[in-house]
Amino acid sequence: MYQLIDGKTTSAKIKEEIAEEVKQLIEAGGKKPHLAAVLVGHDGASETYVASKERACKFVGFNSTLVRLEDTVSEEELLQRVNELNKNEDVDGIIVQLPLPSHINEQKIIEAILPQKDVDGFHPVNVGRMVIGLPAFVSATPAGIIELLKRYNIESSGKSCAVIGRSNIVGKPMSILLSQKADFGNATVTLCHSRTPDLKEITEKADIIVAALGKAEFLTGDMVKQGAVVIDVGITRVKSDKTKSGWKLLGDVKFDEVAPKCSYITPVPGGVGPMTIVSLLKNTLLASRKEIFQ
Ligand code: NAP
Q1: Ligand 1, residues 170, 209, 215: which to mutate, most atoms within 8 A of Cβ?
Q2: Ligand 1 center to residue 21 CA distance, Å?
Q3: Is residue 39 in contact with ligand 1, taking CB distance under 6 Å?
Q4: pTM of the full structure
């Protein structure tokens, strides 16, 4: 029988822990950690993400600032706003919600954020530091997955892992974190992508599978070995006549087929998703302590 990895409960617990740390910080005379989010345009999903980040900040006792800009904003104006936040000494962490309108160069904006305030962990300085094992802000989704594995006492050392998807924000950092020589890591990782031939041959041998490709129910029962740990990162919104909203979320894993073969598996929703915001909060707390870049 498989065990469900409950990201919702785990993230709620971590939020309580962060709230307690903030309380102690303030009692000791420190200032509230402060996260600033920049939202360009009115994309529905981005609005939802930013609103939940603001709610989470409020819950743990952080200050949060939302800088709203129209989608007609110029790249120059956006860079200027980021720069203002860089200079604002009260702001500890900055996130610019992606995607940005096509006339804006995302990479340029990411690189404009001070690495010391880059709590999304997307700046090349943070990516580079993470790769060579230095303290760094780590991209929130892979950091959340590592935290989930640790909290469920799932060992990665010596294991064989398949990561499906090589994006800069999920798959690639995930493969590095799992394989790094550190307290947690030491796995042998195969990083798979759309040009990987015979993917099944790789996944069916893997002890841990991280599915992060964004293709609903891609990973089927026949691709997974008995006792595997399966982490489902995918979120695909599909129409449904069974829900009030008229849509539902599907992961990259065909849950009903895969779960019976697993030792542990994350659900969608309620698995990896809630951990992503918690990792962002943790990074902001770290940024406020100024411990990463000393
Ligand atoms: P992405 O940038 O679209 O990257 C997808 C990756 O999957 C690419 O590397 C692509 O390969 C690979 N891929 C696509 N089709 C494949 C196939 N048939 N076989 C093997 N590999 C394939 O995606 P992302 O930003 O990493 O996000 C992935 C999923 O996770 C999405 O559903 C997204 O919504 C979700 N997500 C969830 C959270 C969360 O908090 N739960 C956070 C971030 C993302 P190529 O490189 O060869 O194109």
Answers
A1: 170
A2: 34
A3: no
A4: 0.96
